[in-house]
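Chain A, query sequence.
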Amino acid sequence: MKSKAIIALFIAALSTSLILPAEGNTPQKSLVIIDTGFDTALPVISEAVIFEVCILSYSLCPNGRTFQEGPGAATLPASAISSGNMSHGTQMASIAMNTNPGQKIVLLRLVAFNARGERLLVNESTVIQVFKWIASKREELNIGAVAMAQGHHPTLAAKNYCPRVKELEKILLDLKVKNVPVFFPAGNASNKSRIDWPACIPVSMAIGALDTKGEIANYSNYDRNLVDFYVIGTAPSLMPGGSESSATGTSVSTLIAASYWLNVANQKPELTAPAISQLFRDAGRIVFDSKFRYGREMQMQGVLNS
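Chain A, predicted structure.
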């Protein structure tokens, strides 16, 4: 299959922190955040990071190669991080930490930028390499969930519109079987018949956005058979350097959903991935859009109450 590129899905949102009471001394599982790069000087991020890695389609990691592990690998230099495109990762990490302040995070930089600050395409083979790396580090980094707020909108109008990438699908399935769900955004193109890739891969956790009225947001892509949960899609976030901003989109919904999930996984380590999913399905209400298309809200408060 020819190499495809994934396109950044922009900005998203934050919600009130809802933390379950701690139980026992079980080691905390970590959340892998895959994005454009991060301002790791921000305390909210630096105090939570346990590992950094850079995996790019171009030789533009800090070491001048396509791969780098260790401190600084996913960090973007302050001189280049002010661009709106480059700030996305910092926003996503801040959203995750404000949603679940106690979690530990692994930062993975996936997107390269040229000298003019323009983002470069990400090859399908690089996405596969990213998830191979995650699978290989699952036990060492005690990975409990993965969130990638990036995606590519399929152009096919056919019923089976989702691009087939069997190697990636197998890795995602293996991670799911080992209780490590992977969260992707449904996308922001207002398409009501198909969602973005890789969210359209059935074994992934596809996340759509709710608006401030609690309805499915107009911009959120829709596929009743593939979107797993809907989460609020508008909230504050931090920009590189620490300035506050407002963010909207399914990207934010994805980070909130993954952080909700990891919260439960850490406090209830005996639960399998299907059991946690069922907890959220039982607790969440049915939500609609203006055309009465429907889905399930992912609601942390409902899980707390149960």
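The two ends are 46 Å apart (CA to CA). The longest strand covers residues 49-55.
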